[in-house]
Each structure stands twice: as structure tokens, then as C-alpha cells.
Amino acid sequence: MTNIKSPANRLDALKLLRAHAFFADLPEALFAPLLSPRGRQEVAGGELLFREGDRAGHCLLVQHGCVELFRFTADGEERVFQLFGSGQLVGDAAMFMAHGRYPMNARAQSTTVAYRLSRTALRSACEQYPPLAMRLLESLGQRLYRQVNEVDWLTSSSAAQRLAAYLLNLQRSQGAAIGLPINQRQLAAHLGIRAESLSRLFSEWQQRGLVRGRQRAWELCDLGYLQQLAQGATRSF
Asked: Which DSSP symbol is given to 165?
């Protein structure tokens, strides 16, 4: 960890905070307490930023890089729940959990720089500035809604439908040529299917001309078919 009392680091941290929609109009007096004196973390890819069960004393605001939240399944496989990039908050929900512990592990996918935001200061800022509390509540509500939809989809869909929905979601942000943000074993755990089944699906779809590629690099060749498969994952709101 690096001391953010240095002018350059402190300026970077404040600019990042003010650029975030949650904190843009936060009263000036509430900014300083949020930033821990030794709150700048720079880690290499593969390093953990916090572990499941650790005391949740801070959340992270990513400056650059990518952080993945994951848990281990009962059979030891990693299940990646979410990825966070530049300007995003990691672990903010844990700041409001009664047990005061992180419910997941956070690991850097690549070289990552993030700033630690104090749990105590964040809760105090919410009490002093209610609009911040409302924004955090709205964000947590939206994420809960998304997770409920995901659980519903995982329990009512086939492996092919889940994979199609996942690839189409990536395609909307990346284009027809997509790069998987996690490896195939992690993707299988994320989709709730066996790694062998995922590999077989990719192989079958390649033979049928639906997709083209290997490992993490893929091109979606028949969007119409994939969209029809994933239709059940589409909601009106």
C-alpha cells in the first residue's frame, strides 16, 4: 500500500471520487475522511485484494485494471460473480452488512491500482448526506434484482441457453468478435454447468457455424439463432 498523502496520489484519488456518480456532489468536508492515509493499493495480476471472511474495513474504488469477485464451489471450482473496471466500486455492499465481513474474495486480473474507502467514513457520509445513501440503496436494489433474475434463469434454462445469453451480453459491449473475460473453467462454474459440457457446446457450435474461435477469443456468426436461444433471459424492465 502507498501513502496517499503525497500531492499527486491525493489529487488522483479526489479526481476519481468526484468522477463517480455516487460522490460527484458530495460536500467537500466529507471527501477527506473517505480516503485512508495509506489507502492506495497497487497489485499485480493474480494477487488478492481481500479474502472471503476478512473484516470489511473498506471498499475499493478502482483507478485502473480489473478486479474479479469470486468464491469457491463445494467441489473446489472458482465461480466468478462479477468483474470491476476503472471507476467502479468493489465491495460496497459489504460496508452495510451486519456481520462486517467480506462475503467473497477479490482478486486482480491484471496490474490494478485502487483506492481504499473507509467503511466508517462511508457510513458516516451516508448519515450526513442522505442523497449518497439513496444512490447506494438504488444501486444495491438494482444488483439484487439482477441477481434474482440470474438465479431464476439458471434454474429454468438449459446449458445452451445460458451460454447463448452470456455471449450475447458480451457481444452488446464488444461487438461480434468477443474476448471472454474469464477462462472456460471459471465460465462453466459461473453458468452452473460442467467444464466438459461447456467445451462440448463450443465444439458443437463451431461445427454448425454458429461461432468461430478458441479459448477466450470468439466470433458470433449466427446472432439470430443465439438470440432465439437466449430469448427467455430478456426482460421488459
From this structure: H
DSSP 101: B
pLDDT at 2: 54
What is the C-alpha separation between 232 and 149, in angstroms, rounded?
A: 11
Domains delineated in the chain: 7-135 (2.60.120.10), 155-231 (1.10.10.10)
> Do 2 and 38 touch, CB atoms closer than 8 A?
yes
Judged against a pLDDT cut of 60, whether residue 210 lies above it is answered with yes
* pTM confidence score: 0.85
Q: What's the pLDDT band for 100 if we cut at 50, 70, 90? A: very high
Query: Where do the DSSP E strands lie in 95-215?
Result: 105-108, 112-118, 177-179, 211-214
Handedness of CA 220, 222, 226, 231 (dihedral sign): positive
pLDDT at 117 over 90: yes
